[in-house]
Amino acid sequence: MHFFEVIRRRRSVRAFRKKSVAADTLRTILEAANAAPSARNLQSYEIYVVTNDLTRMALAHAANDQFFVAGAPADLVFCAHASIQDATLACTFSMLAATALGLGSVWVGDFQTGEVRRVIGAPPGIEPVAILPIGYAAEEPAPPGRRPLDDLVHRVP
Fold this sequence. Notes:
Layout: H1 3-9, H2 23-34, E1 45-50, H3 53-62, H4 68-71, E2 74-80, H5 84-100, E3 104-105, H6 113-120, E4 127-135, H7 149-152
Antiparallel strand pairs: 1-2, 2-4, 3-4
């Protein structure tokens, strides 16, 4: 899929079909995350892959009962240990890679940090910053409205 088509087609998907994501497809998504830019190339983030049913449900509870987190066959939890930007860039690359591969995803940023850390077994100093449920979409959300460029772009003399 052409890059700009990927950007246009990406949607926040919160309903997933009961179909697992193949290991090689998941690996391709993780390789995309690993290709993301990194501040000073520190690569100061970790990715926790959650595919177990019970653990995904616990993660959904930790995400303030957003049960679509448990409905996805795979959840990627992006954590920072030095640079939040590194983790968010990796998550963004994963989200776009999932779209390019015909999968749906949604960025989840509303969760109880300590509880997510406990669920995934992350050690102290590892800060969860995003959860990315991934799977085959069971819905096709309409494109969201966007601000006009003239409202959001500011030229500096």
